[in-house]
Amino acid sequence: MLGALSGDALAEWLRSHPLPAITGRTLVDGKRLHRDLDESRRRGWFMTRGENVEDVTALAVALSIRDEVFGLAVAGPSHRMEKRIDDLAARVVAARRRIEEVFRQ
């Protein structure tokens, strides 16, 4: 959901919220998190690798339905997800497009 914020809104959010370590992989530096989100926006999808739950990888996209932002994600054990990241990312992106298309009609 942070990735759906505008640059200014994200910067403000990062200034006003602590980033506690949930796992050893949690991004706790605001600048590093901001760079990760910028890279993910350019790529078209977001990923977490054990940042919130150890040994869980998740891929996600933000989607807009009637002016509201939602998140769509797929997650699973890292050892299974890692082998399929490109395929799963393509599927999540395609699902976002289809869902937004349906709600535009």
Short synopsis of the structure:
The protein has 105 residues and is α+β, with helices and mostly antiparallel strands. Helix content is 46%, strand content 23%.
Global Rg: 14 Å
Strands of the biggest beta sheet: in what spatial order? 1-2-3
The H-and-E topology, N to C, reads as HHEEEHH
The first-to-last residue Cα distance is 24 Å
Number of extended strands: 3
Q: Taking all residues together, what is the mean pLDDT?
A: 95
Strand residue percentage: 15-25%
CATH topology term? Beta-Lactamase
Count of the domains: 1
CATH class: Alpha Beta
Structural class: alpha+beta
The global form is flat
Unreliable parts: none
The CATH architecture assignment turns out to be 2-Layer Sandwich
Percent range of helical residues: 40-55%
Quick tags:
3 strands; three-stranded antiparallel sheet; Beta-Lactamase; single chain; alpha+beta; 105 residues
